């Protein structure tokens, strides 16, 4: 076979999957229609924010460079009145893991650079999948130049209009929302751009969202009934003027788009799997669209490598989480960006009152960074400080992209389990004060696989 795993699409989701697999020595072939192997699939900004959990996934990629170029820590979130006066400002306390304002094209370039330096990964640039066939032990795809590739597994990371999903005959169920939005991304050299900030504007006349970080701005405005999308793009300067001088901006993108809440009816057909927008899409009101895709491949990467017989676990774990994220995004959009004037006035009153609560910043930030749980209750370990063999480290720095076997005292792990973990390059560590008398086995995505009493 040409590869162990074939990935269709080298956007951030496909590239992260390739990097995680390649870091474990898996032979990966990536097919992407972008003709330049060093250029991003999406040359313009798209995703705007990554939370602390998705950053942990990216940090599993050894040698991923340029964090300061594409990730700027988010320092505050605001809810603003229609006249842009702050109703509530949340500042991130020191020491709490931060979300970041994302420059997606730069992240994609960094990922492609990492793939180019990974010996087991090969990128087929300027190529698209046009057909596929699968048997009991392999998948063969035909590319648009007539050539073919064969692999044990195919993962479609090729977006909401996924060719791979269509080829395996999977429906994409859900709804598209009738309210289009205008998004404008711009660069600026103005020294006045402040600390990285995300703002909802509670204006029922025209709901909007604003992002600001040094050197860059983004605005998103809801189009009102009867407004022409092409005309709105031409009027972008008028909408920007209350926020910044349009003459001082270099607009990178001004486009109208529609939100979707859709999920593939199945995320696996035989040896073909779907991830990211190919499997699901959601409104952006909680900033979790890209994050959901990265969580998909964080799970898929270890299943494909270490437990291919258990691949149905992927959809069992991820579908309920995506459903919950989508519902939260829809609820947030209805509440925060609603157009009912009475409801908006009541919301502004509630927000003002909430801003008076002491310690609200810390409570919100801590809740956002809390470890996640799987549908069966399995919890994820936080990136906590550890002491191993007298050396201070953290969980993520200790494990990297591998399994972890953490114990808090002397004992014997059963030989069969030890042999499997050793064969899968697990990190064995005696951690000071950690679960005395037990060993905790941690998956590469930091969820606990099991806890075993030490004999």
Describe this structure in words.
- The chain contains 13 helices and 27 strands.
- By secondary structure, it is α+β, with helices and mostly antiparallel strands.
- Helix 1 packs parallel to helix 4, helix 2 packs parallel to helix 8 and helix 8 runs antiparallel to helix 9.
- It is globular, with a radius of gyration of 23 Å.
- Strands 1, 2, 8, 9, 10, 11, 19 and 20 form an 8-stranded mixed sheet that branches. A 7-stranded mixed sheet has the order 6-5-14-15-16-13-17.
Helix content: 25-40%
DSSP strand content: 25-35%
Mean pLDDT: 89
Terminal residue distance: 43 Å
Number of strands: 27
Characterize this entry briefly.
The protein is an alpha+beta fold and 455 residues long. Helix content is 29%, strand content 29%.
């Amino acid at each position: 076979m040409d590869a162990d795993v074939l990935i269709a699409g080298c956007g951030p989701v496909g590239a992260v999957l390739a990097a995680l697999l390649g870091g474990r020595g898996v032979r990966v072939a990536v097919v992407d229609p972008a003709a330049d192997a060093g250029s991003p699939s999406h040359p313009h900004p798209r995703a705007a924010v990554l939370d602390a959990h998705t950053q942990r996934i990216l940090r599993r990629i050894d040698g991923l460079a340029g964090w300061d170029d594409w990730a700027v820590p988010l320092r505050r979130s605001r809810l603003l009145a229609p006249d842009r006066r702050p109703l509530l400002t949340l500042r991130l306390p020191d020491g709490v893991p931060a979300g970041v304002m994302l420059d997606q094209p730069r992240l994609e370039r960094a990922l492609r650079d990492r793939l180019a330096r990974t010996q087991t990964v090969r990128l087929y640039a300027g190529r698209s999948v046009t057909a596929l066939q699968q048997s009991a032990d392999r998948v063969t795809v035909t590319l648009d130049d007539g050539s073919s590739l064969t692999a044990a597994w195919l993962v479609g990371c090729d977006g909401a209009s996924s060719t791979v999903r269509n080829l395996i005959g999977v429906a994409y169920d859900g709804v598209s929302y009738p309210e289009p939005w205008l998004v404008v991304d711009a660069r600026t050299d103005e020294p006045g751009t402040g600390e990285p900030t995300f703002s909802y504007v509670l204006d029922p006349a025209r709901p909007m969202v604003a992002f600001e970080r040094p050197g860059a701005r983004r605005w998103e405005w809801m189009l009102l009934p009867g407004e022409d999308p092409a005309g709105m793009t031409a009027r972008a300067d008028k909408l920007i003027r209350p926020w910044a001088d349009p003459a001082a901006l270099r607009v990178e993108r001004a486009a109208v788009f529609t939100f979707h809440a859709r999920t593939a009816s199945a995320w696996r057909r035989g040896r073909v799997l779907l991830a990211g927008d190919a499997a699901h899409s959601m409104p952006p009101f909680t900033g979790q669209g890209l994050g959901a895709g990265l969580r998909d491949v964080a799970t898929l990467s270890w299943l494909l490598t270490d437990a291919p017989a258990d691949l149905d676990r992927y959809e069992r774990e991820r579908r309920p989480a995506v459903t919950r994220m989508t519902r939260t995004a829809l609820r947030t959009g209805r509440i925060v960006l609603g157009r009912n004037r009475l409801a908006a006035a009541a919301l502004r009153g509630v927000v003002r009152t909430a801003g008076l609560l002491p310690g609200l910043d810390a409570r919100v930030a801590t809740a956002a960074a809390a470890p996640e749980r799987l549908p069966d209750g399995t919890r994820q370990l936080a990136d906590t400080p550890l002491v191993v063999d007298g050396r201070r480290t953290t969980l993520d720095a200790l494990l990297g992209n591998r399994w972890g076997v953490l114990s808090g005292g002397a004992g014997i792990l059963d030989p069969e389990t030890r042999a499997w973990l050793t064969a899968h390059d697990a990190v064995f560590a005696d951690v000071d004060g950690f679960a005395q008398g037990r060993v905790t086995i941690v998956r590469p995505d930091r969820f606990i696989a099991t806890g075993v009493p030490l004999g």
